[in-house]
Structure formats: C-alpha cells, structure tokens
Automatic annotation (TrEMBL):
Keywords: NADP, Oxidoreductase. Pfam families: adh_short_C2. This is 3-oxoacyl-[acyl-carrier protein] reductase. Belongs to the short-chain dehydrogenases/reductases (SDR) family. GO terms for molecular function: oxidoreductase activity, acting on NAD(P)H, oxygen as acceptor; oxidoreductase activity, acting on the CH-OH group of donors, NAD or NADP as acceptor. InterPro entries: NAD(P)-bd_dom_sf, Sc_DH/Rdtase_CS, SDR_fam. It comes from Coniosporium apollinis (strain CBS 100218).
C-alpha cells in the first residue's frame, strides 16, 4: 500500500482551497473568460499568472494588472504551434523556476448551419479548440514531469459539448469541445502515474464579447422563462471558483471530471 504522506506531502491532504505560491499559465487570458480566471487565481493567492495569447492586451488586462501589480504577465504564442507553446512555457519556468498549473482556455467559436461551413472555417475551429488544446496540455505535462511537479491541467470545454444550441447551432464547435472533454478523461488516465491531474470546466452562457448578441435578442426574456434556471448570463468571474478548486491542492484526488457551470440554463 502506498504511503499516504509520501504522495501528499508531510502535512497530508489540504483542507483549504487556495493557490498560495502557485504559478499558473492560462492560454487566451488577455480578455474574456481567461482573464476572469486569472483574476480569480490571483485573488486566491496565486504567486503569478501568465496569459499566453496570440493577441495584444487591452484595457481589461491593464485593469487587472493594476490590481495585482507585478503578478500577471502576458506572453505571445500560438497555441496551434507546439514549439511556440513550448517556448512560452520555458520562459515562465526560466523566470519563476516553477509551473504548477495550466488552464487550456484559448478557443474560437463560429455559429452557422452545418451545410454552410467552409473547410477553412472548420479547420480554424478545430486547429485552436482541439489540436491546440492537445498541444498545450502536452507541453504542460512535459514541463511538470521535468520539474517533478504534480501539476494540474484544466481545459475550458463547453455546455455545447453536451447538447446543441438550437438557436445558433455549430456542429464543428460542439464537436471540438466534446473532443476536449474526451481528451480530459484519456489524458487523466495516462498521466495519473506522474501525479498530474487533468480536468475540465464547461461554461454555459457567459457575458463576454463573443456573446454580446445573446441578451439583444428580442425574445431573450421569453427564452429565459422557457429554459428556467438563473435568468441571466454568467459573469466571467463566476466561473473562477471551479478552476481555482481544480488547480488547488485541495483537489489532489480529483481528476478526469468535468464541472458544468451553467446556472441550469446551459445550452438548449
């Protein structure tokens, strides 16, 4: 029987959910959901958070940066290029001498009828959402193994991976996120031998630049009555608790799960 202390450390299981002293990387965290996750990580004790993004930072990022001076940083990389992600992670390790968690969050979305999607549009979605997610997880796992860290990988999946959005369908998007959830289970199984945990979070309707149109629909109030659940979209920060838990040592025996955060509304 494995000695419990040797696998959990001298203090045994953690009883508090926090990220004290941890270095966390988050892809696509210059804005939106990723930035909300970064904010929550820092407010729960993370030592440093690195946004790995292909774009530039903006006012939202600067506002968070001011609140956590010197603790949030931005690196430019392309998640669809494994070498690019490896370089970014190596920069983090060179500066911090550590990496404890990777949130694989960068993604694309496009909603249209399946018969209308072009090959280019499908490839754009799958390159970022599916292939990019796999590359990012693999880069993180290799780093954890090299550092001897029992790290945590958390994917951003979607409620669209469970069921379609009838109002704005996207078969390629839903398929890519379903692939992410399956990847979560398979990688969790493969990497458990290294003490690496792999989980995912499935947001429902979240208030971001990509969902501005949702509340502008003329029958939105009626939709809410039909769907039931909480009659509003989620704020990005409301997702953070799930990610913080999965990244924390309190989740030391939690792996291969998906946490839906959808206010019961979900995708219908």
């Amino acid at each position: 029987m494995t000695d419990r202390v040797s696998t959990l450390g001298p203090e045994g299981p953690k009883k508090q959910i926090n990220l004290d002293g941890k270095v966390i990387a988050i892809t696509g965290a210059n804005r939106g959901i990723g930035l909300g996750i970064a904010d929550c990580c820092l407010s729960n004790g993370a030592k440093a958070v690195y946004s790995i993004d292909i774009g530039d930072t903006g006012e939202e990022f600067e506002a968070v940066s001011k609140r956590y001076s010197g603790q949030i940083h931005a690196l430019r990389a392309d998640v669809t290029k494994e070498d690019s992600m490896t370089d970014a992670v190596n920069q983090i390790i060179q500066k911090e001498e550590a990496l404890h968690g990777m949130v694989v969050n960068a993604g694309r979305t496009k909603h249209k009828a399946a018969l209308d999607f072009t090959t280019e549009e499908i490839e754009q979605l799958w390159n970022v959402n599916l292939f990019g997610s796999f590359y990012c997880a693999r880069v993180a796992a290799r780093a954890f193994i090299k550092l001897g860290v029992k790290g945590s990988i958390v994917f951003t999946a979607s409620m669209a991976s469970y069921r379609p959005n009838k109002r704005v369908p996207s078969a390629p998007y839903g398929a890519s996120k379903a692939g992410v959830r399956n990847m979560t289970h398979t990688l969790a199984m493969e990497w458990a031998q290294y003490g690496i945990r792999v989980n995912s979070v499935s947001p429902g309707l979240v208030k971001t630049a990509m969902t501005y149109w949702v509340e502008q629909q003329p029958d939105w109030e009626q939709q809410l009555k039909y769907y039931g659940g909480m009659p509003r979209l989620a704020e990005v920060e409301e997702l953070g608790g799930a990610y913080v838990y999965l990244l924390s040592d309190a989740a030391s025996y939690t792996t291969s799960i998906d946490i839906p955060v959808n206010g019961v509304i979900g995708i219908c």
